[in-house]
Each structure stands twice: as C-alpha cells, then as structure tokens.
Amino acid sequence: MLDMKNALEHLSAQTAPSGFEGPAARAAAELLRPLMDEVSIDRSGSVIGVRRCGKPNAKRLLLDAHIDEIGLMVTGIEEGFLRFRTLGGVDPRMLPDRELTILTQPPIFGVVACLPPHVLKPGDSKKSIPIPELMVDIGMSQEQAEQAVPIGTPMVFRGGCTPLGDKLMCGKAMDDRSCFVTLLRAAELLGEAPLDVDLYIVGSVCEEFTAVGAKTAVFAIRPDWCVAVDVTHGATPDGQKDRTFPLGGGPVIGVGPNMTTWMTKRMIAKAEEQKLEYQLEVMAGHTGTNGWHMQISREGIATSVVSVPLRYMHSPIEVLDPEDMEHTAQLLAAFARDLGKEAETPC
User: Fold this and answer.
1) Nearest residue to 225 via CA among 326, 329, 332
2) pLDDT digit string (tens) for 112-123?
3) 231 neighbors 307 (Cβ within 8 angstroms)
4) Active site positions, annotated
5) Beta strands in the chain, from DSSP E residues, in sequence order
6) In angstroms, how far is CA 238 from the centroid of its own chain?
7) What is the pTM for the complete model shown?
8) Given 103, 165, 261, 265, which residue has the most CB atoms within 10 angstroms?
C-alpha cells in the first residue's frame, strides 16, 4: 500500500521550480511506474503514465496535478549579494529573512537579506519590500559569488515537509505535489479492477508560470475528459468564510462555467455514493488551475476541477490534512470507474 505521507515528504523535498522540474519529474515517474502500464517524460518535462483498459478505441480520462513549485531566479550580483526575479506567484511580504536553496552544482544555502527593526525608517515596518529591492546573502565576496552562481540560477524555499500536530502536514511545494500523491493513491485504489477507459495520469510542468506542461500533454494525449486536481484555500480564523474551505472537510469540487456541468454533477453524485464529505467551490471565472487551459485544447475537452484544501498557499509552510488527500483519491477512483458507460454527451 502506498505510504502517502512518505511519498509526500519525498516529492516535497525535491527542488523543482517552474522550468526546472527535472528532480521532481524523475521522482514522480518512479512513484508512478508500478501503477501504470507505461510511464514516460515528454518533451516539455511532464510525467505521463497510462493504464490501458484493453478495449479497442477506448475513450481516455486524464487526471492532472502539476509538479512544479514557485521559486526565484538570479538576475545579477552586487557586492556578493544576489538580485532576483520570481518564478510564479511569490508574495514579497514573506521573503525577508527567508532561507533559500540556490540550485547551483552543488546547491548552496542563502538567506534573503533584511534590515533589523532598529534601523528601519518610520512606517517601513508596515510595508512589504518590492522584489527589485530585495537581495540574497550567500556569504560570499563579489568574485566568489560570480564564480559560484551563474546568472539564471533558480532558487527555492529551503526544506521539505514535516508533521504539524497529530494530523496535519506542513511544508513547501504541497501545491501541488500533494495532489500528485493523491493521483498515485487513486491509481492504487483502482488496482486490478477492470476499467472501461484508458487512464492517463499527468504530472505537469510550469503550471505556476505558463501551464505549458498541461497544454502540451493534453494536446498530445487527446483525452475525452480531463480532471485538474489542485489545491484551494484552506480556512483560517482570518480568512473569508465564502472563499476558504476547512481542512478535513473533504475534497472541494469546482462549480462554474469553466467546468463541464455533467462532470461536476457526476463528481458530486460519486461523492455521495461513496459517503464522502465534500465541499463546493464556486469558480465564476478563471479557476487558477490547469483546467482553465485543458478545456480549450483542440476542439475542446470536457473538464472538471477537484481541489484539496491548503492553508498558506505559495508559502514555505503550506498546511494540509492527509485525510483530504485520501478522500479526494477515493472520489477520483469512483469517478473513473464505469466512466465510459456512464459519461454523458454535451447538452
């Protein structure tokens, strides 16, 4: 049986920001290989696994979770300090004094420089520092830094993940490697049971930047149905009640014009059949997921979005409940069973 916590720890520890996903892709491929008939890494760097049902001209279901993480990229060096830009949606408020791994060979440690409160100007403590004004201290002279760190070197938050309390997990890159682990578990739950569709599992690259991994994988595979599996905002005392979702409350099913209606209804029906707790998220516009891009591939793909609640998204200390991963996996497995027979045609 898949140890989901160990798999999450292993994947989360990989240093793989958007455009540099090689370590995560290789780790994800090895985890996926025992569960699929074929596993490969495509030209864009995405991991693609397929389990064939054995039926001629079978329709295709694609389950996607992205494997990249947010990060930074070195743009210059001044007095031994690194200037940088962001890879993905990095919040400048949390960067000062943040520990980083600079992905040189071998990797080196760095910390985002910050002024102590004693020397701040009045009012500055209440403001976030713009990215262009921040620098990374690597403890080197200008000459040493120029030799050690090429321009264009990526950087990521330091660390992996760890337990938080008795139930929760905390760490970097839970968005969205937790959902790739959820797909592994869904494939395991399907086991050797016969399917009436070919099942594709994709660990896509560059979701945080261009979504190129999902775009190219869906174009190549030509699925009949896609499910984008990502994270959504977990509830906290200061969060908006109508836009956040309790950890432990089960999978969050997207509802809105960018999700195919019958797929949304079927996802809800399967949750109820399995007696799984679930939550609904109204997505009136851009879903912020690969589902936004997959739905318009080729002549259009029927698409659903399912999410795992996650606190503190796009931070080094993202928090989730592994039970939500398990229940989401159960929902996805139930959705995949008999899909060829039960799928509806567009209205």
Assistant:
1) 332
2) 987 555 444 565
3) yes
4) 207
5) 38-41, 47-51, 60-66, 71-78, 81-87, 99-102, 108-112, 136-137, 154-157, 161-164, 168-171, 198-204, 225-233, 252-255, 279-282, 302-310, 318-320
6) 24
7) 0.95
8) 103
